[in-house]
Amino acid sequence: MKRNVELVVISDVHLGTYGCKAKELLRYLNSIQPKTLVLNGDIIDIWQFKKSYFPKPHLKVIKKIISFATKNTDVYYITGNHDEMFRKFTDFELGKLKVINKLCLNLNEKKTWIFHGDVFDASVQHSKWIAKLGGKGYDLLIVINNIVNWFLDKMGKEKYSFSKKIKNNVKKAVKYIGDFELTASELAIDNGYDFVICGHIHQPQIREVVTKKGSCTYLNSGDWIENLSALEYNNGEWMIFHYEDHQHLLKDDETEEIQDMNNSELLKIVTQFS
């Protein structure tokens, strides 16, 4: 049975890359019935898109998103840096699907500001590390990590994340994340927002930020490369959904098929933006 959720935010899926966990994301999407779905940037990785690699699970995720939009879910596609080519289609609407650069919502009289976050790369120091970990280098790191984790799993040992180890131990990376979260929060406070929601840095988070000018709640939806996380909002409360903690509850239901669009047609649409 599907869970009813008021609002779901996912980001940094990077469809079209080897590191993307499309099957896991599809299981999650098939388990929920959101009233509003916010795709907060880097959903399709145009930077690394290849016609030779866009497998069926990745296409099924796109189908599922379209399926939501053709029914009773408001779907907002917020553009990120890896899918920045979609920015020329800002304010495009197709039924309940809207392409935008940022989203402002009122949740139980709380002002909420949602955007990807790559806009801060020019203003936050030490941002080059994420560009290096992003792109092809990051994708290769994840592929190698997946191979290592396969062997660790066969030996009955705990999985290991190279990327998380780097983020937690490289001072510039730790500082970048801290500066990113503080910059987003200060800007939100200056503009009177109660919640500010970002993606981009692949670091799921919910925390209160207090400055001399006020306070706000900073949230980050994480990613579907290594953290496999999403933000869910229900009854005035936010939570981080971690796939690893709930995968035993998810069923392998097939995505509802869209009769007027097959895989080749979907791939043709994606190719137009590459």
UniProtKB/TrEMBL annotation:
It is an enzyme of class 3 (hydrolase). GO terms for biological process: lipid A biosynthetic process. Its EC number is 3.6.1.54. GO terms for molecular function: metal ion binding; UDP-2,3-diacylglucosamine hydrolase activity. GO terms for cellular component: membrane. Pfam families: Metallophos. Keywords: Cell inner membrane, Cell membrane, Hydrolase, Manganese, Membrane, Metal-binding. InterPro entries: Calcineurin-like_PHP, LpxH-like, Metallo-depent_PP-like. Residues 7-204 form the Calcineurin-like phosphoesterase domain. It comes from the Bacteria. This is UDP-2,3-diacylglucosamine hydrolase. It comes from Chryseobacterium aquaeductus.
